[in-house]
Amino acid sequence: MDGLALEALLKGSALYELTTLKELSELRRQAVEELKRQGILRDPNIIRAMNRVPREQFLPSDMQSYAYVDSPLPIGFGQTTSALHMTALFCEYGEMKLGQRVLEVGGGCGYMSCVYAEVVAPTEQPKATWGHVWSAELIPGLAEFGKSNIERSGYAERVTFLQADASVGLEGEGPFDLIIVTSAAPEIPEELTEQVKVGGILLIPVGGGEFYQQLMRVRKGVEGTVSHENLGGVAFVPLRGKHGWDP
User: Fold this and answer.
1) What CATH topology corresponds to 3-234?
2) Which of 43, 51, 195, 246 is most buried by a 10 A CB count?
3) Is 153 a catalytic residue?
4) pTM, whole model, 2 decimals?
5) Calpha distance 125→138 (Å, rounded)
6) Section 230-239 average pLDDT
7) Where do the structural domains in the chain lie, given as residue ranges?
8) Residue of 6, 85, 21 whose CA lies nearest to 56
C-alpha cells in the first residue's frame, strides 16, 4: 500500500481517532472476530495468540490508535508491519504449534514475533514444552526499536530479537520447524531451505520488488525432498540483504 492510499484509509477511519486502552482491547477483539468470520483464523491457539498480543504497544506513537485497522502500518525507516490478516495467515499457513522453533526474517517492530511466541511458547504451558522464536531485523535502528518493544512487553524469554542479515538463515541456531520471511525475495534462498527441519515449512513471498508477489510454502520431506506450493498473490516490501533486492 502506497503512502497516499494509507493516508486515505486512516483519514476514513474516524473510529480510530481517539482510543483508550479499554477501547483498543475491544477493537482487538473485534478485529480477531472479523478474521474468524472471514475464515482466515481457524486454529484456537492462533486465535488466542492474536487476542493476547496488543499490537498498539509495538507501533510508533502516531500509529497506535490505528492498531486494529487491518492494513500494513508504517513503523519508521521506510518499513511497515504486516496487516493483521497476514500475521494470522503466516501462523495458519505455517501450521504453527506448541514447541516449535521459529525463525522470522525481518522482525520489524516485534509484534509478529510475539504473536508467534504466544503460539509456540504460551505461558500457561510448562516451560519444558516451550518452543522459541528467533527474529532478525537487518536495519539497525529498526532492530533497536523491535528489541526494546520485545523487552518492554515481557517477551524476551521467548523471543530472541537481533540485528542480522537472516536472508542467509541464522547460523548456529537452526534447524527450524518454521521459517517466515516477511519481505519479498527475488527467489527462494537455498540457505533458508537448508535450515528447515525435515517435516518443516518455509513461508516466503517471491517475485518483483514492486509490491506484488506470490507467497510460497516450501516443505521439506522426510528424505530431504523439497516441495513448493503457491498460496496466492501478496504485497510486501522488498527483502534486503545478501539474498534480497539490495545486497
Assistant:
1) Rossmann fold (3.40.50)
2) 195
3) no
4) 0.90
5) 32
6) 92
7) 3-234
8) 21
